[in-house]
Amino acid sequence: MTQCKFKKRELTDQLKIEIDSLHLVAKNYPEQLIGKFIYVYWENDNKWYAGQIRKFSESTRKFSIVYDDNQQERLDLTNQYFFFDETARPTGKYGKTKIEKTLMGT
Q1: What is the pTM of this model?
Q2: CA nearest 47: which of 92, 105, 90, 2?
Q3: How far is Cα 81 from Cα 43, in angstroms, rounded to an integer?
Q4: 63 bridge partner residues
Q5: Are strands 37-42 and 62-67 parallel, antiparallel or unpaired?
Q6: How many helices (H) does the chain have, and how many strands (E)?
Q7: Where would a tag sit more exposed on the chain, N or C end, judged by fewer CB atoms within 10 A?
Q8: CA 45, CA 57: separation in Å to the nearest integer?
Q9: What domains can you pick out in the chain, each with its CATH number?
Q10: What per-residue confidence (pLDDT) applies to 95?
């Protein structure tokens, strides 16, 4: 992950509350996350790495993440710390989804 874009961000109580909301979306509406740019927390590095959610597998309930350095990983985002990359351009035809607008307060 040395070539990957990352962010230093403290894992505050407020951020954990926001992440809990995202866990509900990942569990109940996984298709809403496809194409979204996110930061995923890697505890051992104490960093948030930038990537994009590309696919979701119903059978494994895991998301396929492609990081900025082209490394790929399959994660269960219902128990992973992550948040939306607000600086990335929207990937959907209409921008943010209704769920995303509600979660992000926009």
Answers
A1: 0.75
A2: 2
A3: 9
A4: 56, 75
A5: unpaired
A6: 2, 6
A7: C
A8: 27
A9: 6-88 (2.30.30.140)
A10: 46
